[in-house]
Fold this protein.
Amino acid sequence: MNRVYIKTYGCQMNVRDSEAVAALLRNRGYAIVADEDEADVILLNTCAVRDQAEQKAIGKAGHLARRKRDGGRLMLGVMGCMAQNRGTDLLDRLPDLDLLVGTQKFHRVPDLLDNLFASEKGLGPRPATLVDLDVEEGSQNRIREHSDYKNARQIAAFVSIMQGCNMNCSFCIVPKTRGRERCRPIEEIVDEVRELAASGTREVTLLGQIVTSYGRGVIPGRNGKSPFVQLLEAVSEVDGIERIRFTSPHPRGFKADLVAAYRELPKLMPYVHLPMQSGSNRILRAMNRPYSAERFLQIVEDLRAVVPGMYFSTDIIVGFPGETEADFEQTRALFEAIGFDMAFIFKYSVRSGTRAAEMADQVPQEVKEARNQTLLEILQRHSLSRNRGRCGAVEPVLVEGLARKGEGMYMGRNPGNRKVVFPGTARLVGEIVPVRITDATVSTLLGELVLSGVEDSAGTGGEAISTGRATSAVLPCGTGSR
Ligand code: 5AD
């Protein structure tokens, strides 16, 4: 049996695409292995959002190509966004590639590999690199066929609802790598979620480049509700699914209907990834982001009014062309004022072919570094104090499995998507259990199971634990039962 190792760079969409390729390959009789040294085929599923991500994958592919040239029997493929972005130019740098597969052709990987192995056995001519980078009508609907639930129970699963992006942010390569927006029908997504629920999934994260644009221009609005909110309602109806998340939305998608969904749909978790990019209106305009800093703050306040204690994460780009100290100060101030729980802070990276690449006043690297550092420090400070503030609280934790470290330690997530680690047992996996938080780091909460009988006899019980958003009163660290 041929053994395949898949390495994934970049976003959750890429993770989902790699899962899909793995599922298809398993169905075709390939084995997916966890160790690249054991593999006959290595596939790199790549990212093109920043130069650094591309260089990492190119470096890795170059290294593997040497292993191939040194006589190792190995097939080497590059898939996904960098393949789409750089196309066959990549072959100048990486002439040893056997496969180059674009973002709309993941489902073709098994056929392409079969062909390569057939020609290796002398059943056909040995091709040069097999290249498949075309646009494919309906490729967003093939994701369903990629599913592989029978092989592994996934407590929290990703569900791709759409592909592509019609926005035109001046810094971003994604519209080129992922193409125009194409959405899957609501019924098909709901069917997939039902199957997931039947196989033990309790939480779904709906994925798309701009999920709030889901179905725009294809599915009509209903009772003032956008297609995306209609989808959230439909997914909410699925029995067995207890928690719903999504990523990534666009701020301009947070109209009254989506804000109200947080009031009306208890399964919708109180965690929003809301990409801000900048706090300077001048820079937001240059980025072609159609909102102001004031509007962004308003969205955060609207959501907090519906769900006090809502968790927020964001994406920020520092050092966008023309960003002055005054612009950055506005970003810093808004970032601090909102108090994000998580953030991805990126140094602006020139992407050839985008409008920002041509802009004057590119910002020096050391200025980007310093601004990056400033925001990271604010983030760490805020995350730690927010996490410490949970100490003593009892949180409903969806248990996903063993923690990476510590014998007998299990991990799950609280409604705010924070990782919670606690001593547990295997039968808790897939359950939502009450965990009292006893300690916290910047990124993780530590806790212990609350055993209701013990709580009652101690007279400290009575916290309302639900599957969703209810959290108890917060006590200072150290007052929880230890
Ligand atoms: N440079 C730096 N960061 C970028 N992003 C997108 N394009 C670039 C770029 N050229 C960031 C944005 C986006 C996230 C996925 O990646 O913040 O939200």
